[in-house]
């Protein structure tokens, strides 16, 4: 088997594999990672607002802390900036007032690093979410958002507090790593490149890639690009992959981003072939 070498010193079961949440009128959905923190591979220039012509478009992962005693919310999706105008397609998990599978559309502005977003009515109760804050950009680090939120009307009426988060995704280039079976065997896997499609109306980004495998009874397979909740996609820092191979299919559910040290880490299942297995795995942009 090929050994894993560092390039530098700096790396329907899919939904049920993650936490299932129910909203006020909804059903189960793929859970979203919480508690984002900023991070990155190396220090850069002092942080500041986006420079003129610099866009914050892309995937984002946010979390809230309520000042009204309400449950924390985990929010993931996409932001799209055109000039000073910003639109968003987000999914909200946490508490019992949101159906995570429903996309929430927001519109607003970004001026001199200050952002304001307001949703349309989320449900029949007239629930409206507002975010206000500042965007900070630092080279080689995720963009960050720090601010406040408020919910008026409907199930979560009166909830308000702090919101923070960071940009997520922008996958490209080679990603390699290992799968570890429940029995302790190691399978080396990866793709060059891992590609990311443009944002969908759901706020997710389809993923593409031709994977190779060493140390397994399957040798290759291509990602099937999809839109949340159908893999393969990333939504915020959630990464869900489906890889039909020459001997079964691999379903992988993981989390990416600074909280994972730059890795995509999660669990996998192989079904439909002669060597079905389950285990854990990771992909790193610093290995081959």
Written overview of the protein:
By secondary structure, the protein is mainly beta. The protein folds into 2 domains: 58-168, Lipocalin, CATH 2.40.128.30; 170-283, Lipocalin, CATH 2.40.128. The protein is built from no helices and 19 strands. It has strands at 58-66, 74-82, 85-93, 104-111, 114-119, 128-136, 144-152, 160-168, 175-181, 186-191, 195-199, 205-208, 210-214, 220-222, 233-235, 238-245, 248-255, 264-271, 277-283. The strands form 2 sheets. The protein has an 11-stranded antiparallel sheet with strand order 11-12-15-16-17-18-19-9-10-13-14, with no helix packed on it. An 8-stranded antiparallel beta barrel has the order 1-2-3-4-5-6-7-8. β5 and β6 (128-136) form a beta hairpin. The two termini are 13 Å apart.
Q: Report the portion of residues in β strands.
A: over 45%
Overall helicity: under 10%
Number of strands: 19
CATH topology of the largest domain: Lipocalin
Identify the CATH architecture of the largest domain. Answer: Beta Barrel
Poorly predicted runs: 1-29, 37-44
| Radius of gyration, CA atoms, in whole angstroms | 19 Å
- Shape, please? globular
- How far apart the termini lie comes to 13 Å
Nearest-integer average pLDDT? 86
Number of domains: 2
Secondary-structure element order, N to C:
EEEEEEEEEEEEEEEEEEE
Question: How many helices in DSSP terms?
Answer: 0
Q: Structural class of the helix and strand makeup?
A: mainly beta
Q: What is the CATH class of the largest domain?
A: Mainly Beta
Largest sheet properties: 11 strands, antiparallel
Strand order, largest beta sheet: 11-12-15-16-17-18-19-9-10-13-14
